[in-house]
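TASK: fixed-backbone design
INPUT:
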């Protein structure tokens, strides 16, 4: 009898987990941070700087692709990574809303996994940095970007201000600073 009661008690919890689906994961490619550094910290600093100053990425699809890839990564990493447990949970929620805002701005298919968005944006960025705009357009495939590569590059070039992204990345940078300041080791500790 106790076993049945326990199972009945756990059913709503298990149903809630199933409704949320599997936990997403994402990683940044090795070239996300050139030189020594932590990819997550680089993403926090880079995305915050880009979205706080939209003029810095205006007309620069490679910079816009990097900022959106970093934001997409943070929207997965911050809410699920054990390293960020000290962050207020609303920061992760803000990042997820901001990632949706950015995905909508460049025309990402809603069902596209975060890793596919990150990988294609980095591939397009690499091609753009090499002066290969055709390669960049090809990297932005219609599976992830239904409008096609050329249209997506145009959207990246004319990225509108993304207020949710600006607010969420600022909140993330603030939370990281607070977390590092509050550590007894003076900011040095687990990574």
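OUTPUT:
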């Amino acid at each position: 009898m106790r076993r049945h009661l326990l199972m009945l008690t756990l059913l709503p919890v298990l149903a809630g987990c199933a409704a949320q689906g599997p936990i997403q994961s994402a990683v940044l490619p090795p070239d996300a941070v050139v030189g020594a550094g932590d990819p997550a910290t680089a993403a926090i600093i880079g995305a915050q700087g880009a979205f706080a100053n939209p003029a810095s990425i205006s007309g620069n699809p490679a910079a816009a692709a990097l900022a959106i890839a970093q934001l997409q990564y943070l929207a997965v990493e911050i809410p699920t990574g054990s390293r960020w447990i000290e962050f207020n949970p609303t920061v992760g929620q803000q990042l997820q809303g901001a990632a949706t805002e950015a995905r909508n701005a460049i025309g990402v298919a809603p069902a596209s996994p975060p890793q596919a968005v990150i990988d294609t944006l980095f591939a397009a960025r690499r091609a753009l940095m090499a002066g290969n705009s055709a390669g960049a357009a090809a990297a932005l495939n219609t599976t992830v970007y239904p409008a096609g590569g050329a249209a997506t590059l145009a959207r990246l070039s004319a990225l509108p201000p993304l207020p949710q992204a600006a607010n969420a990345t600022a909140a993330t940078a603030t939370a990281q600073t607070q977390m590092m300041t509050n550590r007894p080791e003076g900011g040095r500790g687990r990574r």
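COMMENT: Residues 10 and 126 are 48 Å apart (CA to CA).
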